[in-house]
Write a structure and sequence with these properties.
Number of domains of chain A: 1
GO molecular function (chain A): ATP binding; ATP hydrolysis activity; phosphate transmembrane transporter activity
CATH superfamily of chain A: P-loop containing nucleotide triphosphate hydrolases
Helix content of chain A: 25-40%
Distance between the termini of chain B: 59 Å
Number of strands of chain A: 10
Helix content of chain B: over 70%
Protein name (chain A): Phosphate transport ATP-binding protein PstB
Order of helices and strands of chain B: HHHHHHHHHHHH
Number of helices of chain B: 12
Structural class of chain A: alpha/beta
Largest interface: A-B, 32 and 24 residues
Organism (chain A): Serinibacter arcticus
Distance between the termini of chain A: 42 Å
Oligomer: heterodimer
CATH superfamily of the largest domain in chain B: MetI-like
Pfam families (chain A): ABC_tran
CATH class of chain A: Alpha Beta
Radius of gyration of chain B: 27 Å
Number of domains of chain B: 2
Strand content of chain A: 25-35%
Shape of chain A: globular
CATH topology of the largest domain in chain B: MetI-like fold
Keywords (chain A): ATP-binding, Nucleotide-binding, Translocase, Transport
Structural class of chain B: mainly alpha
Largest sheet of chain A: 10 strands, mixed
Order of helices and strands of chain A: EEEHEEHEHHHHHEHEHEEHH
Largest sheet of chain B: none
Chain lengths: 259, 307
């Protein structure tokens, strides 16, 4: 059910400004791919191009190819809305819908799309998604309470439950733990381990220990100077990247000698 | 240990002195003066408000009887204390209601365009004209409606619709402006969360943006109603005044509370006319108050619950 994505020669622009240049990478199915690099190097921007969220910013555009299962998601005739149904996303700051209860938040992908679902099926989807996100036991007695009443870590797991409730092929995570405490972070990392059985996961993180803990492959983004576009410097198996990277820039960054 | 340095360093080891310095005394004095000034300004601002409210309640309160609310002015002549404002209440509700039906959707849709779609020249132009329209004198709105219907139907035509159009000209910019602010308050993260679930833009706007800001939108519209419900000049030009109820919005003059107050006062500024004017003013204020209470109730029903 999970899919691989082959990105080739992707350039990403904000208006006239080229933010990311010439990214070519393969994202393997049922694995976790981590993207690391200094702030402003374009890793989040790149992540957002994978489900066409980049283009909701006025003036933002993309050149190049990102092929999922033989279909270029930037091909003509491709509906970005359909792409986003297949490729879900979890954001840096937990963002449950404040007007909705916990249950409604999980069903948001169904309800916001005006799809009808029998109550029994909806109950099943809510429980399944929350269980899958390791949140069920904490919230099963208060499903009708607002999602904004949960703690930050719980809210983030609620957002993950909401994302997997629409059964996407791929899950993109943009620094999902940066606003969380270490215990919630651990809970999310455990969850990522379980989720990769079923999903292809791409995670952007500033935390290199996190990248080495959760990911199978790691890509290092860097930019040569401020104002220059970011580039994918190197990508390899995570163990190789953290023990014997082939580029000096990667080694410097990973070992803390950058600049 | 000579500190040859250009970076700020803490003072060398001296005993801390936390007693008030000369500059501290000046600060305290300034603080006292400014605190007195702003309190005084606040009290002065309250004077006209309180005096106005007591005046309306005292002078209008004596008129506020069931008879005053439930009769109109048919067959009331001279110094007769009979007669009431039923026709004017109905007219005010009709005309303001129709104006709201016209203005609320147009204003809200324009605000949605400005916040969710407009980024280019058109949006800037629209914002500019909305700002200009907010400042239009109300008499000009009345003249606009008169001129419009003179072209469409004929110069002698008078009806409630004309009044509603005139009020809409005043109301739309207010609705646009305040709804725009409400929609801007919806965090972008919620829109992105919705897009990322594969929800198309139009459903995101309806079910996330508008739903999240619903309480604010209701408040905006009620404030806009309160802004126009007391307008006199445009209604004087367009719907004038009559002595009895006119349930047709398409034909004939309609009485409204502000115009009723004006015409009664101008006919008999010392006698029963003035009393009726004060009574109508009180009824108008009560209507606005009820509207505000209803809006508060609706807002609290739809506002975002915390925990």
């Amino acid at each position: 059910m999970s899919k691989r994505i082959d990105v080739s020669d992707l350039d990403i622009y904000y208006g006239d400004f080229k933010a990311v240049q010439g990214v070519t990478m393969a994202i393997e199915p049922r694995s976790v791919t981590a993207l690391i690099g200094p702030s402003g190097c374009g890793k989040s921007t790149f992540l957002r191009t994978l489900n066409r969220m980049h283009e909701v910013i006025p003036g933002a555009r993309v050149e190049g190819k990102a092929v999922m299962d033989g279909v270029d998601i930037y091909g003509s005739g491709v509906d970005p809305v359909e792409v986003r149904r297949q490729i879900g996303m979890v954001f840096q700051r937990p963002n449950p819908f404040p007007t909705m209860s916990i249950r409604e938040n999980v069903l948001a992908g169904v309800k916001l799309n005006n799809r009808r679902m029998p109550k029994a099926a909806a109950d099943e989807l809510v429980e399944g998604s929350l269980r899958h996100a390791n949140l069920w036991n904490e919230v099963k007695d208060r499903l009708d309470k607002p999602g904004s009443g949960l703690s930050g870590g719980q809210q983030q797991r609620l957002c993950i439950a909401r994302a997997i409730a629409v059964s996407p092929q791929v899950l993109l995570m943009d620094e999902p733990c940066s606003a969380l405490d270490p215990i919630s972070t651990l809970a999310i990392e455990d969850l990522i381990h379980e989720l990769k059985e079923d999903y292809t996961i791409v995670i952007v993180t500033h935390n290199m220990q996190q990248a080495s803990r959760v990911s199978d492959r790691t890509g290092f983004f860097n930019l040569e100077a401020t104002g220059q576009p970011g580039q994918l410097v190197e990508m390899d198996d995570t163990t190789t990247m953290f023990s014997a990277p082939s580029k000096k820039a990667t080694e410097d960054y990973i070992s803390g000698r950058f600049g | 240990m000579t500190a040859v340095t250009d970076r700020p360093v803490p003072a060398p080891d001296v005993a801390p002195n936390f007693t008030t310095s000369p500059s501290g005394r000046r600060r305290k004095r300034t603080n006292a003066i400014m605190a007195t000034l702003v309190t005084l300004a606040f009290l002065i601002a309250l004077v006209p408000l309180i005096s106005l409210l007591t005046e309306v309640v005292i002078r209008g309160g004596s008129m506020l009887t069931w008879q005053f609310i439930s009769t109109d002015m048919t067959g009331v002549f001279g110094d007769s204390p009979d007669g009431g404002v039923r026709h004017a209440i109905l007219g005010t509700l009709q005309i303001t209601g129709l104006a709201t039906l016209i203005s609320a959707p147009i204003g809200l849709f324009a605000a949605v365009y400005l916040v969710e779609y407009g980024h280019g020249r058109l949006a800037k132009t629209l914002t500019f004209f909305v700002d200009v329209m907010t400042g239009i004198p109300s008499i000009v709105a009345g003249l606009f409606a008169v001129a419009l219907f003179a072209i469409l139907i004929g110069p002698a035509y008078r009806s409630g619709v004309m009044g509603a159009i005139a009020l809409s000209v005043l109301m739309i910019p207010v609705v646009v402006r305040s709804c725009e602010e409400m929609l801007k308050l919806v965090p972008n993260e919620l829109r992105e969360a919705s897009y990322a679930l594969g929800v198309p833009k139009y459903l995101t706007i309806i079910k996330v943006v508008l739903r999240t800001s619903l309480a604010g939108i209701v408040t905006s519209i009620v404030l806009a109603i309160a802004r126009v419900i007391g307008e006199t000049a445009p209604l004087l030009l367009t719907v004038g005044i009559v002595t009895s109820m006119n349930t047709s919005m398409l034909d004939g003059r309609v009485a409204t509370l502000p115009v009723f107050a004006y015409s009664q006062y101008s006919q008999d500024a010392l006698g029963v006319g003035a009393d009726r004017a004060w009574g109508a003013a009180l009824v108008l204020i009560l209507i606005i108050m009820i509207l505000n209470l209803v809006a508060r109730f609706i807002s609290s029903r739809f506002s975002i619950a915390e925990k």
